[in-house]
Design brief:
Elements lengths: L1 H54 L3 E3 L2 H6 L3 E4 L3 E15 L4 E5 L4 E4 L10 E2 L4 E6 L8 H24 L5 H22 L2 E2 L2 E5 L4 E6 L6 E2 L4 E6 L3 E9 L11 E5 L6 E3 L6 E5 L9 E9 L9 E14 L1 E3 L4 E3 L2 E7 L4 E12 L3 E6 L6 E5 L1 H7 L14
Antiparallel strand pairs: 1-22, 2-24, 3-13, 3-18, 4-12, 5-7, 5-11, 6-10, 7-9, 8-9, 10-12, 13-17, 14-15, 14-18, 16-17, 19-23, 20-21, 21-22, 22-23
Helix pairs in contact: 3-4
Keywords: Transport
Organism: Coprobacter tertius
Pfam family, one: CzcB_C
Length: 398
């Protein structure tokens, strides 16, 4: 009986131990499941954070204060018409009738005296510029000769007047003497009013500025030698040399912009009362270029004779994406713009460009309507990209 009781007690103990062990294993398994779920949540959170970080890794931060101080300007991209452009080179020329070349009317030696005659100097019509002295020439002083010829012709004419009345000479002889006198008088008067004790004074026929000084102090000149060129610089001409491959497009050209090398400013003919004068029908004998000529008012400090970059404006293209040239930055031959994402966030965007009129440029890809592009201060935004770190607390609003 005791043996039976002992066996029952032993079985009950063994069963109790097995149940406890199973319960303990269940508890441990539950703890492991909770830990695994926590680790999965943490990994998911870290993955989301990494995705968010990667999403904004190319964002450039520039505070509103710094952007304002740097003159950063942002404009929204709105499609508009943009004319096709032919880019070429050319030259600024003086307009016809706007320039005069002063030549020597007598032979002699040039003397500037105390007068400062330098290129670019402003002058007025009638102001003396230099003196040509004809003294001590081998053939004699031509001014003195003109004076002698005039005085001799005057005496002959006065005597002939009395002789023709007394019919001592014929009318034909008298008319010849009178003609000689009038010629001598005109020659002397044309010279005497420009002659002083030092020689013949040379003055400018027009007001303007000295474009070129063609002689120096002490040079000997003969009659007809160019001395100075004077330009009024009021009306100028723009000559563009266009490649023959663009010849078919010449009839569609209506205006032009040009950029000078000395101030890098882009001038628009439409703002200078410009007009198309003509374009060539053939190229030059030793050239593969066809000339096209414009005329415009010199409202700025444009120098005649300077070589310029020219943007010939042709037929318009509809609904083009256009940005100012100042919006572009370039790195290793690739063009970029900066798009504003929010008040302080910007993004660097690669673009492909098309036509360029000197002030604006066509964007073929990389931008879409509604994008907000930095048009002024792009270089400052580029500098800010060197520290491409999103500050704590900055949130990007899509």
């Amino acid at each position: 009986m005791k043996k039976i009781f002992f066996l029952c007690t032993l079985c009950a103990y063994i069963l109790s131990g097995c149940n406890g062990e199973n319960s303990h294993k269940d508890h441990e398994h539950a703890n492991e499941s909770e830990l695994h779920e926590h680790e999965k949540d943490q990994e998911s959170h870290e993955h989301e954070h990494e995705n968010e970080k990667n999403e904004h890794s190319d964002e450039i931060i520039l505070t509103k204060e710094k952007a304002y101080a740097a003159g950063v300007t942002v404009e929204e991209v709105i499609p508009k018409d943009f004319v096709q452009v032919i880019k070429t080179n050319g030259q600024i020329l003086a307009a016809q009738g706007d320039e005069s070349t002063i030549v020597a009317t007598v032979p002699g030696v040039v003397s500037f005296g105390k007068t400062s005659v330098s290129e670019g100097a402003s002058i007025k019509a009638g102001n003396p510029l230099l003196t040509i002295s004809s003294k001590n020439l081998m053939d004699g002083d031509p001014v003195s000769k003109l004076k002698i010829n005039y005085e001799t012709a005057l005496k002959d004419y006065n005597r002939a007047q009395s002789l023709v009345k007394e019919k001592i000479i014929s009318e034909k002889e008298f008319n010849q003497i009178r003609q000689n006198y009038e010629t001598a008088r005109l020659n002397w008067e044309a010279t005497s009013n420009r002659h002083d004790g030092n020689g013949t004074i040379v003055a400018s026929p027009i007001s303007g500025y000295i474009k070129n000084r063609l002689v120096n102090e002490g040079d000997f000149v003969s009659v007809g030698t160019p001395l100075l060129s004077v330009s009024q610089n009021r009306r100028l001409m723009l000559r563009a040399d266009v490649s023959e491959r663009h010849y078919s497009s010449l009839p569609t050209i209506t205006s032009a912009n040009f950029k000078t090398p000395y101030d890098a400013k882009v001038y628009e003919l439409k703002n200078l009362n410009g007009r198309l004068v003509s374009y060539g029908k053939t190229s030059g004998e030793n050239s593969f270029y066809v000339p096209i000529i414009f005329e415009f008012d010199n409202k700025g400090n444009i120098i005649a004779g300077s070589y310029v970059e020219i943007y010939l404006l042709s037929s318009p293209r509809k609904n083009s994406i256009i940005v100012p040239v100042t919006a572009l930055t370039e790195e290793q031959g690739v063009n970029f713009v900066y798009i504003q994402l929010d008040e302080e966030g910007y993004k660097k965007q690669e673009v492909k460009t098309g036509n360029n009129n000197g002030k604006e440029i066509e964007i073929l890809s990389g931008l879409k309507p509604g994008d907000r592009v930095v048009t002024q201060g792009a270089y400052q935004v580029k500098l800010a990209s060197n520290s491409n770190v999103i500050p704590e607390g900055h949130s990007h609003n899509h």
